Fold:
Amino acid sequence: MIHNFSKSNSIFSTFISEIRNVEIQHDSMRFRRNLERISEILAYEISKKLEYKKQDITTPLGIAEIPLIKDQPVLATILRAGLGMHQGFLNYFDGAESAFISAYRKHTTAEDFDIHVEYLASPKIDNKVVIISDPMLATGSSMALVYKAILQQGNPSKVFVAAAIATPDALDFLKKRLPDNTEYFIGAIDDELTAQAYIVPGLGDAGDLAYGVKC
Structure:
């Protein structure tokens, strides 16, 4: 199931507009904060899909029965661009464990590249809910390799994929490689992909905008 947040009007579209805006992008702190705010909203929406268990909470005046998340998810993200989104998810799932995966494009030419995964730090994920976040899903290759990498730590009970911007090609690619019950929470879906696999209109390189241009 794909949840496309651009299909409805809300304050969410303000944050998407600001990470796209070439003038506002000059402020890297604001760019990171907007990724964080986007992720907070996605985290809230994903939280509605989790299992809950009622618990008795003692107040100064009595007992309140409140449904609380049964098991905290594992929050996985792709270094380095995903760090801003990861923080947004941690703001809401503050008891969650974290997984970090390094994935990057290794270019042979301007248009040809392979995706390499070099680093994985993850808890065991057997029978756990895993939320994988990355700002941009251009081709879907990085996300597919990241999912394959974390399977070294077990088989999750459920996978959620969260991204600020994605393409239909990426989502089609992932639907063939991730579990059938995977749910995708996407800020906006852009139809065009350049020969260099950049999303149009997209927003540029999220990692560079958040943390500076890499050599």
Remarks:
- Residues 28-47 form the longest helix (20 residues).
- The longest strand covers residues 97-107.
- The CA atoms of residues 54 and 133 lie 28 Å apart.
- The chain is about 30% helix and 35% strand.
